């Protein structure tokens, strides 16, 4: 029997959650996702040192304030690594807007436009790029504008049904619910060491979102992310996309046990419609997020942690001696 990874590929588009080009070449995912944390790790790899040097030299030739030069260097490195990845994968690369702009709609739009422009200047068409934006209210509104301009967006750091629904109603191309981080929060709050995979709060969240989208004909792609173990992945087999670390892909590749399809449009349409398809207003979004301690805390934490790694990346570039 084929490995679980090969079985998964038949029902779900497999995406690499890494910036490591060698791992991507080996595992052959359809798409790849990056974020400041992954770019910071990638920038320390020997094969990316020439790209780091190119980014720094490029930024020096584009005058501006110190912060503008840092921003230029960061964006250039992101698209150079993204282009390297696109030479290997047949699908999309997700490239993230600076997390410090997560509550500024206009700045997010402008930064996203610049990323697309940089990709195009490096011979990458925008139809192969997903602009990754935190699913704050402001980020979702930015994605709405960008989608109307033909720029596809990946709304990331999704921890609640309301974030998912607001993103879909804004026309977002794809959402990334963070399975493992939801589990982390519930384990901490409950004092439990583990949950059975079929009771995993992160898994249940993605299943609810997926079923609702299929039942109400939202075209937004659901891509589970941030997995802690292969059992979570197996419970979401059949989801539109799953972005998986190389380590967990390797684990799936080492097992030849049967993988059951857990999600599909047919399964979703046969399931009870337990959630009302209401329209998300700003007031409702903010109130529901206020009522959801897990989503509020994990969204804020995610933005903070991406910012921390973005600053580490900037310091790495400033101290680069190559």
Helix count? Answer: 15
Give the helix level as a range of percent: 40-55%
Distance between the termini: 48 Å
How would the global form be characterised?
globular
Q: What gyration radius follows from the Cα positions, in whole Å?
A: 19 Å
Overall description:
With 322 residues, the chain is of the alpha/beta class. The protein has one domain: TIM Barrel, CATH 3.20.20. The chain is built from 15 helices and eight strands. It has helices at residues 4-11, 21-27, 36-43, 49-60, 66-86, 105-121, 137-148, 161-169, 179-190, 201-215, 230-235, 246-253, 265-270, 282-291, 293-318; strands at 13-17, 31-33, 93-96, 129-134, 153-158, 174-177, 221-224, 241-244. Strands 1-2-3-4-5-6-7-8 form an eight-stranded parallel barrel, surrounded by eight helices. β5, α8 (161-169) and β6 (174-177) form a beta-alpha-beta unit. α8 runs parallel beside α10. The longest helix has 26 residues, at 293-318. The radius of gyration is 19 Å and the shape is globular. The relative contact order is 0.16. The mean pLDDT is 95.
Write the layout of secondary structure elements.
Layout: H1 4-11, E1 13-17, H2 21-27, E2 31-33, H3 36-43, H4 49-60, H5 66-86, E3 93-96, H6 105-121, E4 129-134, H7 137-148, E5 153-158, H8 161-169, E6 174-177, H9 179-190, H10 201-215, E7 221-224, H11 230-235, E8 241-244, H12 246-253, H13 265-270, H14 282-291, H15 293-318
Parallel strand pairs: 1-2, 1-8, 2-3, 3-4, 4-5, 5-6, 6-7, 7-8
Helix pairs in contact: 3-15, 4-5, 5-6, 6-7, 8-10, 9-10
């Amino acid at each position: 029997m084929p490995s679980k990874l090969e079985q998964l590929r038949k029902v779900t588009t497999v995406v690499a959650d890494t910036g490591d080009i060698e791992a991507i070449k080996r595992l052959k995912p359809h798409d790849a996702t990056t974020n400041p944390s992954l770019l910071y790790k990638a920038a320390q790899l020997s094969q990316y040192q020439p790209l780091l040097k190119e980014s720094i030299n490029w930024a020096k030739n584009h005058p501006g304030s110190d912060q503008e030069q840092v921003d230029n260097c960061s964006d250039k490195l992101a698209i150079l690594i993204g282009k390297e990845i696109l030479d290997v994968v047949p699908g999309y690369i997700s490239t993230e807007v600076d997390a410090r702009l997560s509550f500024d709609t206009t700045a997010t739009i402008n930064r996203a436009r610049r990323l697309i422009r940089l990709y195009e200047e490096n011979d990458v068409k925008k139809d192969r790029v997903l602009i990754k934006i935190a699913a704050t209210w402001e980020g979702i509104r930015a994605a709405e504008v960008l989608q109307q301009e033909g720029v596809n967006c990946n709304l990331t750091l999704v921890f609640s049904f309301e974030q998912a629904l607001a993103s879909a109603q804004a026309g977002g191309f794809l959402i990334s619910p963070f399975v493992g981080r939801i589990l982390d929060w519930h384990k901490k709050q409950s004092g439990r060491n583990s949950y059975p995979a079929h009771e995993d709060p992160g898994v249940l969240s993605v299943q609810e979102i997926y079923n609702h989208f299929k039942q109400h004909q939202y075209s937004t792609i659901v891509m589970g992310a941030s997995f802690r173990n292969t059992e979570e992945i197996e419970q979401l087999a059949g989801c539109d996309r799953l972005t998986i670390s190389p380590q967990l892909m390797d684990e799936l590749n080492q097992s030849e046990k049967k993988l059951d399809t857990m999600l599909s449009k047919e399964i979703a349409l046969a399931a009870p419609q337990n959630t009302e398809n209401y329209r998300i207003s700003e007031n409702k979004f903010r109130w529901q997020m206020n009522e959801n301690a897990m989503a509020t805390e994990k969204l804020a934490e995610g933005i903070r942690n991406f910012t921390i790694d973005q600053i580490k990346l900037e310091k790495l570039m400033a101290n680069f001696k190559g």
